[in-house]
């Protein structure tokens, strides 16, 4: 579904992404792991159009999407969430979700004067869909709560809910488990699995919690120093000598040699 070919992103002399190539299969939940500074989030940002690549190519279902802006990719069904949730804190959870779909009738001055019935009908439909999403995510009991008042884990669920308000095809989740308690993390995991199996979502997940990765992801891709180091099941990744070296600074061979 997504093919990344020899992608580079440089910040001056620093090569945050340094020739990364990978393929995300449609219908998969792919894990992206690696030590801090491996280039994972920068890779996400380049694929999602937040950053322009220095060189390289990204395609989605065969279409070249390299460097397209986020709003264009959003309309194509490519969405991403952020490590720190971005909610409208003074609005309710329902209102946050209702804001997501673009090209709403109420966005034009003409319709605010002459299309009030159309706007009202759209808002009723959006509210109904938002309530359905909140129920799916098991946070419908706080649908009228201001988003700024809810917990970090609930904000991550709300971000996931945003992807359900549009025709998402592939969703990039950046450290969805950061700062989230185990109970809510399990709820988030359940929702991701259901969206994958029941609605056909493709996910790419950056996460440091290996139990979460093990539960959700196959395959797992490991990055280090801006490059793809290994790909396979989590057990295969854990046993890979190059991965061990990237995380620990020395591989098993070196450890044995100095034992």
From TrEMBL:
Source superkingdom: Bacteria
GO molecular function terms listed in the Swiss-Prot or TrEMBL record: ATP binding; ATP hydrolysis activity
Entry-linked Pfam families: ABC_tran, BCA_ABC_TP_C
Coiled-coil positions: none
Cellular-component GO terms for this entry: plasma membrane
Keyword Transport set for record: yes
Keyword Nucleotide-binding on entry: yes
Protein known as: Branched-chain amino acid transport ATP-binding protein LivG
Organism: Litoreibacter arenae DSM 19593
């Amino acid at each position: 579904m997504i093919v990344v070919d020899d992608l580079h992103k440089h910040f001056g002399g620093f090569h945050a992404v340094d020739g990364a190539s990978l393929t995300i299969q449609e219908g998969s939940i792919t894990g992206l792991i690696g030590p801090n500074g491996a280039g994972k989030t920068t890779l996400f940002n380049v694929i999602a159009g937040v950053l322009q690549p220095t060189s390289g190519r990204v395609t989605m279902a065969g279409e070249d999407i390299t460097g397209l802006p986020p709003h264009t990719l959003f309309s194509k069904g490519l969405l991403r969430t952020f490590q720190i949730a971005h909610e409208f804190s003074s609005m309710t959870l329902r209102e946050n979700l209702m804001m997501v779909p673009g090209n709403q009738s109420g966005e034009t001055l003409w319709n605010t004067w002459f299309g009030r019935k159309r706007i009202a009908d759209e808002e009723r439909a959006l509210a109904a869909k938002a309530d359905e999403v909140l129920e799916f995510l098991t946070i419908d009991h706080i649908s009228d709560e201001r988003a700024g008042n809810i917990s970090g884990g609930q904000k991550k669920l709300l971000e996931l809910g945003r992807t359900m308000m549009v025709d998402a095809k592939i969703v990039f989740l950046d450290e969805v488990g950061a700062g989230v308690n185990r109970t809510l993390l399990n709820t988030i995991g359940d929702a991701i699995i259901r969206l994958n199996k029941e609605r056909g979502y493709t996910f790419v997940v950056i996460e440091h919690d290996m139990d979460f990765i093990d539960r959700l992801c196959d395959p797992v891709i490991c990055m280090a120093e801006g490059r793809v180091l290994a790909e396979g099941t989590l057990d295969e990744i854990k046993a890979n000598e190059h991965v061990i070296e990237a995380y620990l600074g020395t591989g098993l061979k070196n450890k044995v040699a100095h034992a």
